[in-house]
Amino acid sequence: MGQIDCLETEARDATFSARVKESSGINFDRCYQCLTCTLGCPFCFAMDFSPNQVLRMVQLGLKDRVLRSSAIWFCASCKACYTRCPHDVDIPRMMDALRQMALEAGVESKETSIPQLHRTFLHSIEQWGRQYELGTLLKLKLKTKDFFGDLVLGLKMLWKGKMPLLPPKKKGGDKLRDIFEKR
Ligand code: SF4
Ligand code: SF4
Q1: What is the pLDDT of residue 7?
Q2: CA–CA distance from 69 to each of 53, 78, 107, 122 (Å)?
Q3: Ligand whose nearest atom lies closest to the CA of 36
Q4: Is 2 within a domain?
C-alpha cells in the first residue's frame, strides 16, 4: 500500500478537487478519514492506495498520483464502502469520475490491462449489442500479449459451453448507435 508522502516536492493542482466534485456530483469534504470504507473494501489488497487515501489525495490536489494509481482501476464499484460510510460519501462515483478523467487526459495507468478490458468490453457491446465473450477475450489477449494467462480456465469454459464460439445476433442497432454517439 502506498504512502501519501513527499507532498512538498509534488505538484498540486488547485482545481483538481473541484473538478472531481463537479464531474462526480460528490461532496467528499464530509470525509473525516475514519477508514471504514477501506476496512470494508474487498479489493483494497490489490490497490496501491486505499480508498480513503485516494479521497485524501483528491482533496490535496495530487492529480498525477491519483490518475496514475492502480486503485481507481481496481475499484469494482461494489459500493461496500458507500453503504458503510457514516457520511454517505459515494466513493465508487468518485472512482468512476477519476477513471473518466484519466482516460480523457490520456494518462498511462500502472494497470494497463484494466483500461484495455474496459475499452474492449465496450467495443463488443457497440458491435454486437451485448457481450461476445470469446471475441473480447481474443482481442484482449492480442492487446496485452498475455497469451497463456487464464488459458486453462478459458478452455474449461469453452468445453462446458459457457463461452459460445459464434457472436450473438445483433439487436437494437439504431438505439445502440445513438447511445455510443452520445458518449
Ligand atoms: S468511510 Fe466515509 S468518512 Fe470514513 S474515511 Fe471513508 S469516505 Fe471518509
Ligand atoms: S466500491 Fe470500490 S472502493 Fe468501494 S468497496 Fe467497492 S471496490 Fe472498494
Answers
A1: 57
A2: 11, 19, 10, 22
A3: 1
A4: no
Query: Are 98 and 117 within one domain?
Result: no
pTM to 2 decimal places: 0.79
User: What's the gap in Å between 172 CA and the centre of ligand 2?
Assistant: 32
Q: With contact defined as beta carbons under 8 Å apart, do 35 and 52 qualify?
A: yes
pLDDT 10s digits, 35-88: 999 999 999 999 999 999 999 999 999 999 999 999 999 999 999 999 999 999
Task: Indicate the residue among 52, 70, 104 that finishes a domain.
Answer: 104
CB of 95 shorter than 6 A to ligand 1: no
Backbone dihedral angles phi then psi of residue 94, each to the nearest 5 degrees: -65, -40
Smallest-distance ligand from the CA of 49: 2
**What domain range is 173 assigned to?**
113-181
Which atom of ligand 2 is nearest to 41's Cα? 5
Distances (CA, A) of 146 to 44, 135, 137, 140, 177: 24, 15, 11, 8, 31
pLDDT tens per residue across span 109-147: 777 788 888 888 888 888 888 888 888 888 888 888 888
